[in-house]
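1st attempt posting a full record on here, be nice pls
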Amino acid sequence: CGTDMFSPSVAEATVKVLTSWGCEVVIPRNMKCCGLPHIANGKMATAQNLAIHNLQVFNDLDLDYIVTDCGSCSSAISKNRLKHLLDKMGYDEQIEAFSSKVYDLNSFLIEILEIDDQGLKPLNLNVTYHDPCHLAKAQGIRKTPRDVLKLIPGVNLIEMKDSDRCCGGSGTFSLTHYDLSMKILERKMKTIVDTGADMITTCCPSCTLQLKHGSYLHYNNAPVKHPVELLAEASKS
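the predicted structure (as tokens):
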């Protein structure tokens, strides 16, 4: 939902890249939110209903993989999270069929499609990467987003200090606890400014919104993008 509403260019880049590497991309029109925002706000029954709906929608399709560009979504629809959410409700088989196909976009590109740099044009950018909490800490996915960036000719990845320290976004936290959120963000932006990077990259719509705000306040409005957006830009097709 965050990608769809706030960062549609990420979704477009995702489809472009996957298609260029031979994938048929299916986007179910009747899928719903993964339910993570509802869990965070204590709406457990709503989150369960959303999960059950999505299990049916995706399991009814003939899919090889289920790929998401959002670290929070891939965390929410992982097997362990769904089993915990739907505990003792009789959906174990449906969860297994669904979650066994789920991949974070970066991991899918690197580990399954095994993409390379053939046909990519140089972008000549110094970039830094922020690890989203739901991607790095909840799923242990740290390497593959960096691998995507390193594949692109001319992209120089400059690591920031404490790259997996929270940016303060955390869904609606930046709205409901703005003052505290800004203190966390200011600390994060200091480490980003120290890199001198031309661009900030990350893999979470909530982090993207927060870092864009931080960039506006502290870093001359430097752009914030998903690695797949840079990959799409470097693609000649």
